[in-house]
Design a protein that fits this description.
Layout: H1 11-14, H2 23-30, E1 38-41, E2 44-51, E3 54-62, H3 67-78, H4 84-98, E4 105-109, E5 113-118, E6 123-129, E7 142-144, E8 149-155, H5 160-168, H6 170-178, E9 183-189, H7 199-210, H8 215-225, H9 230-236, H10 241-249, H11 254-266, E10 274-277, E11 280-281, H12 288-303
Helix pairs in contact: 2-3, 3-4, 7-8, 7-10
């Protein structure tokens, strides 16, 4: 899959995304009758598909030269009007080569969506949420709850945004979806060691705490008190310091942390926190309400 990012949308904008929302909101954004699943829009035709009564796929077919109309539909699909101009600029630069392809070509669209161009005489593309094959995820390791659908966070203990997710959203996610038995929550390592020098040691320290069945306590302490001073942090949790220090010195869990990082890269993740609900990558993990919609889609997908 060829990848590029049209535009790095803000979290505020992403909260308005129409994919995984009421399909009527997509129609309203385009000024079209809310009841229509398929409709003409300018010189183009738009077809929509729902999953759990939420907008799941959008198929667009229109003239190759009409980039304005295509840009309008893409903007409405992900709730981000600022993506239109970068899309048009990219198409003006790459469109000629793009239409030479005789097979579908998928590109990244604002991180959490795919824009798949289909071969043919017209500009035909499908917009969908990014969706991982279940086999792409490794064996669960650190899991809370017993619900049927897995919420997976790929995180970095030194990442400020990950700390913000812990401080402002994780308790709500647990209360709404995990403690109610609707979902499980899993932590997976994605240490961004290029910019966070303590990301790998912190991840390995959390695994040493896991050896003593205290992963989640150590996880919380790292986000609350910060990275570094791993032995002291273990002492504050009354862990066996000799075992913990030996584990750290030997880098016993280096392989686990590296495997999680490789998995995140294979999934095409670009930063932390990145959260999957079932197979779907969330556009904005801070939008606690969106978990409900993606859970509904994941539940419907697994029931097929």
């Amino acid at each position: 899959m060829k990848q590029f990012l049209f535009f790095a949308a803000t979290l505020c904008t992403l909260a308005l995304a129409q994919i995984a929302s009421d399909p009527a909101s997509f129609n309203r954004a385009l000024g079209v009758d809310e009841e229509l699943a398929n409709f003409e829009y300018g010189n183009a035709v738009v077809y929509t598909e729902t999953l759990a009564n939420l907008l799941y796929k959008i198929l667009y077919e229109g003239p190759r030269e009409d980039l304005e109309t295509a840009g309008d539909v893409i903007s409405a699909a992900i709730g981000n009007p600022e993506i239109k101009e970068p899309f048009i600029a990219w198409m003006e630069k790459n469109g000629e080569d793009l239409f030479r392809h005789d097979k579908p070509l998928a590109v990244s669209l604002s991180n959490a969506y795919l824009l798949t161009f289909l071969p043919g005489p017209k500009m035909t593309f499908v917009i969908t949420p990014k969706e991982a094959d279940p086999s792409a995820f490794g064996e669960p390791r650190h899991v809370l709850g017993e619900g049927p659908t897995m919420i997976r966070e790929y995180s970095d203990f030194e990442c400020p945004a990950c700390r913000a997710l812990f401080n402002y959203a994780l308790a709500q996610i647990k209360a709404r979806y995990v403690e109610t038995g609707r979902a499980r929550f899993e932590y997976r390592h994605f240490p961004l060691f290029e910019i966070h020098k303590q990301a790998v040691p912190a991840a390995e320290a959390s695994e040493c705490a896991a050896d003593q069945d205290r992963f989640w306590d150590y996880h919380d302490a790292l986000f609350q008190k910060g990275v570094g001073n791993y032995i002291a942090l273990a002492g504050s949790l009354d862990l066996d310091l000799a075992l913990f220090a030996e584990c750290m010195a030997e880098r016993k869990h280096k392989g686990i942390v590296e495997a999680h990082r490789a998995e995140a890269e294979a999934l095409g993740l670009h930063g932390t926190p990145s959260v999957f609900v079932g197979p779907f990558l969330l556009p904005n993990p801070f939008d606690v309400d969106s978990y409900d919609r993606y859970l509904r889609m994941a539940e419907a997908k697994s029931a097929r």
